[in-house]
Amino acid sequence: MAQAPQGSQWKTLDTDLNRISQVEMATAYVARPLVGPGIALAFMVLAGIIAAIFFGQQPVNYVVVAAAVFGAYMAVNIGANDVANNMGPAVGANALTMGGAIAIAAICESAGALIAGGDVVSTISKGIIDPSSIADTRIFIWAMMAALVSSALWVNLATWAGAPVSTTHSVVGGVMGAGIAAAGLTAVNWPSMGLIAASWVISPVLGGAIAALFLAFIKARILYREDKIAAARTWVPVLVGIMAGVFATYLAMKGLKQIIKIDLMTALIIGPAIGALSYALAAPLIRKASVGMENRNKSVKTLFGLPLVISAALLSFAHGANDVANAVGPLAAIVHATENGVFEAKVAIPSWVMVIGAFGISFGLFLFGPKLIRMVGSQITKLNPMRAYCVALSAAITVIVASWLGLPVSSTHIAVGGVFGVGFYREWHMERRLRRPGAAVGKVKPIAKEERRRRKLVRRSHFLTIVAAWVITVPAAASLSAVVFLVLNAVVN
């Protein structure tokens, strides 16, 4: 038999190897989007194993294992959606890289959850459902399971659509829907639901107004002064002191409440004291950093970089301390009811449950967080360190004001409302400058109406998508929860 020339054999081998390489490249390209869901699924399975090991009952209670899996799923979704509100402005302002933001947020969120996370959680989601209306422990367990599943699915859908929504409202909607399906409309505490509905408007409007006021102050006192650097030396330490005082009060009231109980008046005393100390420390540092700076807006912006990073880290710590209960609250309720045969308005969160919530938030942030971080940080409106600083400051101030007034507000709505407030203020300010008398005499070049519309500084498509998602969060989560509860109840019975 005649043999093929040696060169043709090598050519055939090269062709085959090239085909294999192309298949490998195609496989890697197709598999890349599956890496995140695969890791998240592995974490959920691990959470179920942890529940089976630490629950301490034999035989293994599969309801608790399933609840742990869905609790881990909820925690991952909170990390993917909610944490973007704290880190998005800092990334959009280029004060942090995406990797740096994820690392800082993961550390601070986990620390907040594990160090200062709530050891007691309201299983009926702040009085939304009357416990006496659900007499059967088994029905209560299925209601909590339905709330957990539905709220996680809704937050996942919102993340996929690119809409930052309130996980607190998702859980509240889930509990409400399951409660109505289990015990009827009379089971719901409608005055509490009315306050939550009011917060849909109060949270973003108040956050946006405060952010816009601080931006207006910075423009008037620093950017529009003839000597910007001298003005910055005067006012930036004041703003840093305000930030420190506000966050000290915020953490005393919210972030550290499980370590030490501090009432509102004490927190309001601690805040100004920390603020004054921070001003005394910041003034010489700002003076030293501003030496040799050019008299330009760009130079002033750099002075806000470090305060912005610190504020984002503190927001993440407080978020981890407070919102981890959204992920593990229903899970803790199921564990308590299964273990004791009864359910109560408040129960302790076991350590292994808190660990699932803390690590789930970090996994969700790392795997899926960049999408919403980019949305909040750069796709709604353009941010720089000064504007992002105003957003972070408004978030902390709004929570303090709302707590003082007894209003239930969403940190998500506040932060995103702050971004909207900064953007809409810039639009208003631009229109005001274009309409001033100088435009009529040629000092300022007039711009046609169509061009002004094109130059809108807040993307209306994102604005409408996010507002629509906010409005339908509670009814959507409630409807989904009612369906899940009815299915679970029918299957088990």
From TrEMBL:
It is found in: Membrane. It is a multi-pass membrane protein. It comes from the Bacteria. The chain crosses the membrane at residues 34-55, 62-80, 139-159, 196-218, 230-253, 259-282, 303-321, 349-368, 388-405, 411-428, 463-488. Its main location: membrane. The keyword rRNA processing does not apply. The keyword Transmembrane helix applies. Keywords: Membrane, Phosphate transport, Transmembrane, Transmembrane helix, Transport. InterPro entries: Phos_transporter. It holds the Pfam family PHO4. Belongs to the inorganic phosphate transporter (PiT) (TC 2.A.20) family. This is Phosphate transporter. It comes from Sulfitobacter sediminis.
